[in-house]
């Protein structure tokens, strides 16, 4: 996708200048690499994954992390792909610690993650978020496309807690594993996790292309929500359970990224800075790179960050809605994907004219026979599967 050449609809084009006070970001998602041993079909990374040769070098990442600290950022999510695929991860983690940044490693726990963990802990790593693709070995290994992945994750989780690091388990749910929510809660307790994220799939990147293979049925979603609500009460003081709502069956949308250009920024492996992980799916936005600009300049002045900052860009029904400062109109990327215009209300909202159609689409996809997964791979989707999911 070439954002720079896409034609803008002047009537609906986002306003070019900031019309809201620009505060300080509190978090940065450092997508250090797109390389990953796993091949999850629910991955939110773009279909065109970036290659190792194009990644930022160590010195540039250190400069970006120092600029983030100066900008007021508190948390760094060391992410990817699989961040431990970067040989300089220990050095980058130590740099964050020296800058006073809280570091969260977002990892699959396979590959070289276990071998690197003691050094990361020594370097000052603060927290580990470990993904599971299922509560059972056969599910994790099938969804992740990696034989032996589940066993490696169990061993890695034990290493994390043995080192005294706080552990969060993250599990993305969809029709291939939604019957394992109860088991996942039990697994998180057994692994001594402090927190579990029950994340219903968000349909961006590879997940959007795999939507029909992933979409759960409404009754299964409702059951999973009830299980989490019951467990939250029962496990108070033992395990915190967060839940990411299933957008297509939601009543109101999530405040995506805490509001566009409001709290967080994402840096891609090659250095483009995005307001959210899927922002490049919106045509017409101009993203600046850390190779050419200081992070603070990008945050304050880059066209992409100012496009949907605040509420002045909103159209009805968001413009006059009393939730507009709570959810900021939901997700711009989802509005683009499902309604064809990023400045419209997120169709996850029941006030969107597209909402009923989206829910009907989800219901129909969930009722159909699940197609095979298209596994994430560098080099894009295989020939013959390029059309992906259609809105
Ligand atoms: Fe949020 Fe807009 Fe829906 Fe109101 S109309 S709940 S602001 S998405
Ligand atoms: Fe881009 Fe939600 S993923 S605004």
From TrEMBL:
Lineage, uppermost ranks: Bacteria, Pseudomonadati, Pseudomonadota, Alphaproteobacteria, Hyphomicrobiales
GO biological process per UniProt: pyrroloquinoline quinone biosynthetic process
Cofactors required: [4Fe-4S] cluster
Organism: Xanthobacter autotrophicus (strain ATCC BAA-1158 / Py2)
Protein name stated in the entry: PqqA peptide cyclase
Subunit (UniProt): Interacts with PqqD. The interaction is necessary for activity of PqqE.
Cofactor binding notes: Binds 1 [4Fe-4S] cluster. The cluster is coordinated with 3 cysteines and an exchangeable S-adenosyl-L-methionine.
Alphabetical list of InterPro entries matching this protein: 4Fe4S-binding_SPASM_dom, Aldolase_TIM, MoaA_NifB_PqqE_Fe-S-bd_CS, PQQ_synth_PqqE_bac, PqqE-like, Radical_SAM_PqqE_MftC-like, rSAM, rSAM_sf
Pfam families: Radical_SAM, SPASM
EC annotation from Swiss-Prot or TrEMBL: 1.21.98.4
The entry's keywords: 4Fe-4S, Iron, Iron-sulfur, Metal-binding, Oxidoreductase, PQQ biosynthesis, S-adenosyl-L-methionine
Similarity section: Belongs to the radical SAM superfamily. PqqE family.
Binding sites annotated in the UniProt record for [4Fe-4S] cluster: 36, 40, 43
């Amino acid at each position: 996708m070439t954002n720079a050449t896409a034609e803008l609809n002047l009537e609906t084009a986002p306003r070019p200048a900031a019309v809201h006070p620009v505060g300080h970001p509190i978090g940065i998602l450092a997508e250090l690499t797109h390389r990953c041993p796993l091949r999850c079909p629910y991955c939110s990374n773009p279909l065109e994954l970036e290659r190792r040769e194009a990644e930022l070098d160590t010195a540039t990442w250190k400069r970006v992390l120092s600029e983030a600290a100066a900008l007021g950022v508190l948390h760094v999510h060391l992410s990817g792909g699989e961040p431990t695929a970067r040989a300089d991860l220990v050095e980058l983690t130590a740099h964050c610690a020296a800058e006073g940044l809280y570091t969260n490693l977002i990892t699959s726990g396979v590959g070289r993650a276990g071998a690197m963990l003691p050094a990361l802990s020594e370097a000052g790593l603060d927290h580990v978020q470990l993904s599971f693709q299922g509560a059972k070995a056969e599910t994790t290994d099938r969804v992740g496309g990696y034989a032996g992945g589940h066993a490696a994750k169990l061993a890695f989780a034990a290493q994390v807690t043995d080192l005294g690091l706080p552990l969060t388990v993250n599990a993305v749910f969809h029709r291939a594993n939604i019957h394992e929510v109860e088991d996942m809660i039990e697994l998180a307790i057994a692994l001594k996790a402090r927190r579990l994220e029950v994340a219903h799939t968000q349909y961006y990147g590879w997940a959007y292309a795999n939507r029909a293979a992933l979409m759960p049925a409404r009754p299964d979603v409702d059951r999973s929500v009830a299980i989490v609500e019951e467990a939250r009460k029962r496990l108070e003081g033992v395990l915190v359970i967060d839940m990411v709502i299933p957008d297509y069956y939601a009543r109101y949308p999530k405040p995506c990224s805490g509001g566009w250009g409001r709290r967080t920024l994402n840096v891609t492996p090659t250095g483009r800075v995005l307001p959210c992980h899927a922002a490049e799916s919106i045509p017409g936005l101009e993203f600046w790179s850390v190779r050419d600009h200081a992070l603070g300049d990008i945050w304050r002045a880059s066209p992409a960050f100012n496009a949907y900052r605040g509420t002045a860009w909103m159209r009805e029904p968001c413009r006059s809605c009393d939730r507009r400062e709570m959810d900021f109109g939901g997700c711009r990327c989802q509005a683009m994907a499902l309604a064809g215009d990023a400045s419209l209300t997120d169709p996850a909202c029941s006030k969107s004219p597209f909402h009923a159609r989206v829910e009907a689409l989800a219901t129909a996809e969930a009722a159909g026979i699940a197609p095979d997964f298209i596994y994430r791979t560098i080099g894009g989707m295989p020939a013959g599967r390029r059309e992906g999911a259609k809105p």
